[in-house]
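It is worth pausing here to work through a concrete case rather than discussing structure prediction in the abstract. The textbook approach is simple: state the sequence, then state the predicted structure, then interpret. We follow exactly that order.
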Amino acid sequence: MPRLKSVLCKMLCTCSREQVGVEEGGLSKDVMAFKEVSANGLSAKTTEVETKLDEGNIEEAESSLREALSLNYEEARALLGRLEYQRGNIEAALQVFEGIELHAVKQRLKSSISEKAHSKRGRSRQELSQSVSLHAASLLLEAIYLKALSLQKLGRLTAAQECKSVLDTIETALPQGMPELLGDNKLQETVGKAVELLPELWKQAGLQHEAMAAYRRALLSQWHLDADCCARIQKEFAILLLYGGVEAGAPSLAAQIDGSFVPKNNTEEAILLLMILLRKCCLRKIAWDPTVMDHLTFALSLSGQSLVLAKQVEEVLPGIYARSDRWNDLALCYSGARQNLVALNLLRKSLSKSEKPNDLSALLLAAKICTEDFHLAAEGVEYARRAVENAKGEFEHLKGIAYRLLGLALERKTKASSSDSERTHLRSEALKFLEEAIIWEKQNPDWIFELGLEYAENRNLNLALCYVKEYLDLTSGSLLKGWRLLALILSAQKRYSEAETVLDAALDETGKWEQGVLLRTKAKLQIAQSSPMNAIETYRLLLALVQAQRKSFGAGKCTPKVESERVPEVGVWQDLACLYSGLSRWRDAEICLEKAKALKNYSAETSHAKGVLCEARNQTQEALAAYTNALSVDPDHVPSKVSLGALLWRTGGKSLPVARSLLSDALRLDPTNYVAWYYLAMVHKDGGRASDAVDCFQAACMLEESAPIEKFSSAC
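Step two, the predicted structure:
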């Protein structure tokens, strides 16, 4: 490691004057470092020693140092090894270091520290002897550290064991930890470097668990490391925890303090370390390190803690980030936490004319947020158009994303439009830009799926079928939404038997816990084929599966894949209630409604199912009340608007304007609902608007011919 090498050279050159002196004599540091050494109040030229070393006479060189500086065997070896290491003779230095006994170092350090602990005020002859003894022990300990470095340079796996012996020696001599005022800076420096080096050596040896234990030892023991050294250790430990691929496990019980936070896994421990580092940066205890925030961003994003990350970004000191960049980062955090309005407000400030109006990443994020709410779709269209214009040069590869977001924003804008002609134009534009996006990324399966879905919702079923087949080829049929969309398109083409075959094939290839949505679609397909008893049996299997999931996983304990494909139990009971109502099995329908209400007391779907039951039993007032209750829970619940509008049409008289309003509003939310078009036609007919009635009848007829058993969007 170049950094350690330079530090070691400096260490060897600037050794404590009481321990080993170096006469500068006007020479450069590189030259003077090994021209003269001093110890025990004596000094000696290194020229004679170097000559003997060059001749291979290690014993004679050692003898010269011992006689000139009054050193014992281990001390002379330590000085000689350091000299060889500094000259770059790594193998020769290692050969010299091999002669030092670790036991002697331990005893020397023990006695030195013991004498130091009992020393009194003043500097007597006895204290001078104690200081010399402590310096000698420090010299020997440094020799073991240099031996570890030599082994590392030579690629020997035993380097970690040698480095560990340095720390073991200190802990044996100082069981209570390093004193704050030891009186020997060189010893403290050597220990600090050994503490930092040991985990690196374990990692180089491929022993990740030992490296993690070494990091914890470095941080939990009393080494009195300086702030920068401690920060480097914390950062490297966090990096190993995040990317090392080995689970560290909880710290030992001895290291845990009652009531303190104990990380449950690697990610939590890494987050804790990185947040401590970030706090130190904010308090100006250490220099700002942008990589700390990068690693923390990764860790918190991995844990789904976007709001925690936002708080950390907000606490970063002013001047480190440009304010527009900080707003963009915060917007990403709040967007990840599904607080889209907060994120969009930040992006609006960032994209203002006085800041960075052409920042491509901010434009793309703002457009993406707007596509998720049709009320913001018009604003999203503008952001997406600006993104298309700015996706050039080095950012041209993002043009496909900009086109896709523009297409999605235009599609969402249709839901806010009240004009049929405008909706048609917007859909046409949306399809054009989605196709343009595919040109830029031809192998993106998600975009191909979106385009197929868009064509299906626009009732261009042949093109939709082509795209969904291409999607299944690209994903090798591994994702359920592709099979479901294929089945829905086939059902819209009235190819029910083929659709059921597709679902059966998907069920055969799907794990048990992910079969729920397929079974629900299959049941609705059987209802469309006038096979209600088969549908009831399928719902029975679905209900058993849903209840087994609830017992096995509990609330909120499913894996993400299972959770995404999970059918809520309340939805199964609601479907069964409507099915039994159509079969005039009133009691069964009531039981299903009671089950659904027990699971979710306030539900627009349950109230709507109750209205269907009441209407089937000719209980008009109860049906009106149920539909009204459904709309009070969810004012945009389309099935309730349609059913209530149809019921008011049957009532006739002064209810026709209200029925027309409800049905028109339902079509604004779901323009492809053929039932709403039919009843709106009947309202126009009874109201004397024959031309409008004809148009609505035509729309209802065309949409019914291509209506799927479920909304195409349910496949997502």
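Step three, interpretation. The chain is about 70% helix and 0% strand. Residues 270 and 679 are 61 Å apart (CA to CA).
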